Amino acid sequence: PYPHYATLRKIDPVHEHPGGFWILSRHEDATAILRSPKMSMQDSNLAGASEEEPPEMALPPSMAEAVSIMSLSMLDRDPPDHTRLKSLVSKVFTPKSIAALEPAVTALVDERLDRIAELGGGNLMDELAFPVPFAVISQMLGTPSSDSDRMRELTGRIVRSPELVSEEEFLGGLVALQELVQMTRDLIAWKRNHPAEDLLTALINAEEGGDKLSDDELVAQVLLLYAAGHETTVGLIGSGVAALLQNPDQLELLRSRPDLTANAVEEFLRFDPPIQQTRRITTAPYTVRDKEIPAGTLVMISIAGANRDEERFGADAESLRIDRPDARHHVALGAGMHHCLGAALARLEGQVAIGRLVSRFPSLALGGEVTWSDRVELRNAKTVPITV
Ligand code: HEM
Question: What is the pLDDT of residues 181-240, one digit of tens each?
Fold first, then answer.
């Protein structure tokens, strides 16, 4: 996709798409819109959206209900709801609770690496990238492992930006969402009767000034944690390792300088961001460069385009450089008030998984062709064949 983003940045960085939305692809414009208080995440602010008849009304009732519950996730809310939801979840999803996970993440990763050692290699996606993030979030929330496989399968089907996929894929996502909402409800009901030292129990009990999450709000935040924390981190591990193996000088550099691991993860996030784009809706006319985007308009923000902007990252922006001093200025984890709540967890998982893989296998190499899934919004390798 990157040559297309480069073209957009160059010839039309504030692009009005014939499909009725706009695309921003420069770093400066992406950070500005993500930080702008005038933007909304709520579809009801789209021009032409009618208050009395939200679009989900055309769906069967149980599906419409699932969609309306998901619209309660903090990512889909504006202040003051967003502020309140993020604050309640942040109370339990703290930097301290994430740092405390390091031994558990290391143990999960090492278990997978033992298997890779036994097999002599394999598809990194199946052996490491997919299993680890879902196991971590399931363990954090305290989900029984009998539910966890099905939830993993279903979360992979949810689609965030309907304008970018086929109708069939979108409907498949809705069916999956409906089942997930029900599973999450059941899980919460079960957890109320079986409280434990886990994130879900803490979320059920989270309170601020007498305020708690309602049942539907709880379902939406739990599902968001599953979905937001799943394929994204999978993408980071898969694409990060692929990039490293396709750039052997960078692999060598990391071997000789393991202290660069944290910066290397920032560079992987910059170079191949797992979420390639996000969206905002203007609530007032919004001027970017010399163009005015009208109120009520959907704007797609090309995270992938912004992350390779030569104006921000210099002439070598299209190259992987794990010692790039300003790699952290990518927008792979968003910016402004919706900045990724799981950023510390994503970084921890990326650093442990990639760091330990590289240090454990001195002859780690690509054993075949890297292939990619065809999702536009999420960048995920399908196969990263490795030999060890
Ligand atoms: C928000 C990326 C991992 C939970 C976001 C946003 C991005 C992002 C770009 C902002 C979207 C926007 O503003 O439109 C990523 C990437 C990850 C990752 C690339 C992995 C490499 C995680 C993990 C969790 C998580 C592990 C939690 C388990 C969230 C939540 C939000 C969010 C709850 C919504 C925050 C809000 O609306 O204020 N993430 N994320 N993410 N992420 Fe992540």
Answer: 999 999 999 999 999 999 999 999 998 888 999 999 999 999 999 888 778 999 999 999
Does residue 286 contact residue 36 with C-beta atoms inside 8 Å?
yes
How far from each other are the two terminal CA atoms of the chain, in whole angstroms?
Answer: 29
Of 178, 151, 145, which is closest to residue 68 (Cα–Cα)?
Answer: 178
* Residue 274 beta carbon below 6 angstroms from any ligand 1 atom: yes
pLDDT in tens, 57-87: 578 888 889 889 999 999 999 999 999 999 9
What region, left, alpha or beta, does residue 296 occupy, with left being phi > 0 and alpha being psi -120 to 50 degrees?
left
Give CATH superfamily name and number for 2-47+59-387.
Cytochrome P450 (1.10.630.10)
**Are 83 and 90 a contacting pair, CB within 8 Å?**
no
Residues 256-265 as b or e (16 or more Cβ within 10 Å = b): eeeebbebbb
Atom 34, ligand 1: which residue's CA is nearest?
75
Q: What are phi and psi of 179, to 5 degrees?
A: -65, -40
The Cα 271–Cα 321 span in angstroms is 9
**What is the 343 CA–ligand 1 centroid distance (Å)?**
7
Handedness of CA 336, 342, 345, 349 (dihedral sign): negative
